[in-house]
């Protein structure tokens, strides 16, 4: 998702690469994965609802894994409540 955020014109290629490596992800370049609701649905589908998206984003952010993207999505989630 970080790559899509920084290179939105290459979303189709990025989705294709992700789907090749992780077929269960089944991403479509037509979706807005930078929307927290869309992102959450992908995570829930991919993990069979075993992982809460906000918990995942908080853990990733704390580990400095894609921190700007995690903070961006967490901010959206917080504002949606």
Order of helices and strands: HHHHH
Structural class: mainly alpha
Spans with pLDDT under 50 lasting ≥5 residues? Answer: none
Proportion of residues in β-strands: under 5%
Overall average residue pLDDT: 92
CA radius of gyration: 12 Å
**General form:** globular
How far from one another are the termini? 23 Å
Largest sheet geometry: none
Number of strands: 0
Task: Classify the helix fraction into a percent range.
Answer: 55-70%
Total helical segments: 5
Number of domains: 1
Protein described:
With 81 residues, this protein is mostly helical. The chain has one domain. It has five helices and no strands. It has helices at residues 2-6, 11-21, 36-46, 53-62, 67-80. The protein is globular.
């Amino acid at each position: 998702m970080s790559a899509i955020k920084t290179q939105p014109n290459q979303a189709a290629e990025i989705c294709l690469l992700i789907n090749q490596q992780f077929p269960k992800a089944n991403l479509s370049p037509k979706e807005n994965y930078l929307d927290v609701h869309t992102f959450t649905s992908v995570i829930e589908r991919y993990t069979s609802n075993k992982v809460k998206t906000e918990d995942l984003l908080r853990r990733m952010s704390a580990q400095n894994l894609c921190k700007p993207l995690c903070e961006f999505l967490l901010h959206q989630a917080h504002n949606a409540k």
